[in-house]
């Protein structure tokens, strides 16, 4: 016998995977993964930011963030600088190339989201966000 919430759990997982794949495909031409996009976007909004703060905001563990930052730095998108106040801390910001790419990525992600949520009213989207937040609060 199926449990009451089996279908919700299955469908949520399935749709989350499809949404991630959809975004991956939209970002592929720019040679950026959704995970890299997340990091670039947070740095764009919060720079200069420490790797620890970035890990917290992205809800990723520190080693994962460090690996993503290493890749972004090799692509010349991110700059690492030692904090003048606390030399143990590394601060991150976007390079000029990273800033330009992030602007393009913002437009690309916005267009992908418009396609993903086509047919939804503003009220639908607000309700959806409220429901997702409630689920997240229940889990935490």
From TrEMBL:
<dbReference type="InterPro" id="IPR036388">
    <property type="entry name" value="WH-like_DNA-bd_sf"/>
</dbReference>
<dbReference type="Pfam" id="PF01047">
    <property type="entry name" value="MarR"/>
</dbReference>
<keyword id="KW-0238">DNA-binding</keyword>
<dbReference type="GO" id="GO:0003700">
    <property type="term" value="F:DNA-binding transcription factor activity"/>
</dbReference>
<dbReference type="InterPro" id="IPR039422">
    <property type="entry name" value="MarR/SlyA-like"/>
</dbReference>
<dbReference type="GO" id="GO:0003677">
    <property type="term" value="F:DNA binding"/>
</dbReference>
<dbReference type="GO" id="GO:0006950">
    <property type="term" value="P:response to stress"/>
</dbReference>
<feature type="domain" description="HTH marR-type">
    <location>
        <begin position="1"/>
        <end position="137"/>
    </location>
</feature>
<dbReference type="InterPro" id="IPR000835">
    <property type="entry name" value="HTH_MarR-typ"/>
</dbReference>
<dbReference type="InterPro" id="IPR036390">
    <property type="entry name" value="WH_DNA-bd_sf"/>
</dbReference>
<protein>
    <submittedName>
        <fullName>MarR family transcriptional regulator</fullName>
    </submittedName>
</protein>
């Amino acid at each position: 016998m199926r449990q009451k919430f089996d279908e919700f759990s299955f469908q949520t997982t399935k749709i989350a995977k499809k949404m991630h794949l959809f975004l991956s495909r939209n970002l592929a031409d720019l040679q950026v993964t959704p995970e890299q996009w997340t990091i670039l976007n947070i740095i764009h909004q919060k720079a200069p930011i420490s790797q620890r703060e970035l890990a917290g905001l992205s809800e990723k563990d520190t080693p994962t963030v460090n690996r993503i930052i290493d890749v972004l730095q090799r692509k010349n998108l991110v700059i690492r600088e030692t904090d003048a106040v606390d030399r143990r801390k590394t601060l991150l910001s976007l390079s000029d190339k990273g800033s330009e790419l992030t602007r393009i990525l913002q437009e690309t992600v916005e267009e992908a989201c418009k396609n993903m949520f086509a047919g939804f009213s503003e009220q639908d989207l607000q309700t959806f966000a409220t429901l997702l937040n409630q689920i997240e609060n229940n889990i935490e």
